Amino acid sequence: MSILKDFEIKLENLAHDTKDFCRVLNESTELNKDFSLQIPKLLSSIDLPDQTFMGQEFSQFPLTILSKNGINLDLYHWIGANTSIHDHHFHGAFKVLRGKYVQRIYHFEATEKPIQGLSIGKLEIKEERTLVENEVVEIHPGDKFIHETWHPEGECVTACLRIKKTIGDLHSYISPGLKITHEILDLKVNKQLDCIHYLSLNFQQNEKEIKSLLSVLPDNVVIRIAFSVGVPNWCLQKMVMESAYKTLAERYGSEAWHQHIRTALLHRKLSY
Q1: In degrees, to the nearest 5, what angle opens at C-alpha 150 toward C-alphas 237 and 86?
Q2: How confident is the model at residue 269 (pLDDT cuts 50, 70, 90)?
Q3: Secondary structure letter of residue 116 according to DSSP
Q4: Rounded mean pLDDT, 166-195
Q5: Which H helix or E strand runs over 191?
Q6: Is residue 211 classed as helix, strand or coil in its secondary structure?
Q7: Which pLDDT score, from 0 to 100, does residue 40 have?
Q8: Nearest CA to 72 among 135, 11, 27, 19?
Q9: Rg (CA), the chain
Q10: What is the dihedral of CA 114, 118, 119, 123, to 10 degrees?
Q11: Most distant CA pair in the chain, distance
């Protein structure tokens, strides 16, 4: 399609600069609501580049349609789904192509780092507003841009122009004041999680073995399972999340900072 050829030319010598990313998205008026409707047809007519997301880790249908000069052009499709509060380990910009897109921006101030991959502090809302179609927003890395989004009226599609290479860690934030690092999981931890997933298919029969596996996982992984952030979707099972919280409580329940974990769970209407 001509729009992709035009974009490829624009990206060939484009500096990895957020302002330039915004400029390209603003100037590319063809990248709009009508273009987003052509995606099913597009899929049958082009060769796809390496994907930013192979599964549904971000949005219900993420699609990388162009990769050039270390920059990816992604499309994210949502139907009534929300994101968690998160920051970014890349920089770029995004454009609303279709639908209603509500965004809330936050500021986080850490006061304590009791264990690896967890900060406790104060999470404050800075702004909330609805973005209109064709509006462009900069994406800055780390805590310079913490946000959550939701898409309350049917389908919403966004285009994201971003550097392909990730930098540093990604984080999730839990109200009223937790910051959880998405540390990279090594092979052994991944396989332990796979085993927990398998055993959880018959949770009651395998509860003892699941607790045993959780007991040897790193703190950061256990807390991510308890809040279901930065872990596979199957960890949304309440019994698995509850077991992870109990594991964390066995390790640190006597520590003063552990009350912040309880408060955050209640804030999310989770009670274990």
Answers
A1: 70
A2: low
A3: T
A4: 94
A5: helix 187-200
A6: helix
A7: 87
A8: 11
A9: 20
A10: -140
A11: 62
Q: What is the pLDDT of residues 226-236, one digit of tens each?
A: 998 988 877 77
Tell me: cis bond preceding 40? Omega within 30 of 0 counts. no
Section 86-97 average pLDDT? 96
CA distance to 102, 176, 248, per residue, from 226 (Å): 27, 16, 8
Q: Are the CB atoms for 129 and 102 separated by under 8 Å?
A: yes
Q: Alpha carbon of 165 to those of 92, 233, 256: distances in Å?
A: 11, 24, 39
Q: What is the pLDDT of residue 53?
A: 86
The position carrying tokens 């001509």 is: 2
The answer to whether 3 touches 32, Cβ cutoff 8 Å, is no
**199-214 pLDDT, tens digit each:** 999 999 999 999 999 9
> Which two tokens mark 231?
């872990």
Token duo for residue 106: 């936050």
pTM of the model: 0.90
Q: How far apart are CA 173 and CA 125, in angstroms?
A: 12
